[in-house]
Specification:
Blueprint (H helix, E strand, L loop, with lengths): L17 H59 L8 H26 L9
């Protein structure tokens, strides 16, 4: 069932009254207040999530570094792993890159660049 939208005209609507404008302004203010509350709620949730992620990443970095130090220590001592120099260099290099990368992620999320209108 197709509607003929050409039949609708502005003349068929009654003229706006001052009460209509007052109601429209009040509804607009209510919507702006709700939008502001939603922004504040989102900000608080983002802050809480960032805090939790920071703790999790810090714990992961601690575990990663503790395991690398353990491997390096036990390589020649207690466990006698006897890993080659190339394996140890690769282990140290990748662990350093991973730690630096995770810290950059944490810092970028904790301190984001402000959004400007010119971008």
């Amino acid at each position: 069932m197709a509607l003929d939208l050409n039949r609708i005209s502005i003349d068929s609507y009654s003229a706006l009254t001052p009460e209509d404008l007052t109601n429209a302004r009040a509804q607009n203010q209510i919507l702006e207040d709700r939008l502001g509350n939603a922004r504040i709620g989102r900000f608080l949730e983002d802050t809480k999530l960032r805090r939790h992620l920071t703790y999790i990443f810090s714990f992961i970095i601690f575990l990663w570094l503790a395991s690398v130090i353990s491997i390096l220590y036990f390589n020649g001592n207690l466990l006698h792993l006897n890993l080659s120099e190339n394996v140890l260099i690769t282990l140290l290099t990748t662990s350093s890159v991973n730690v630096i990368g995770m810290m950059l992620i944490i810092l970028k999320n904790l301190f984001p660049k402000p959004i400007t209108d010119s971008e």
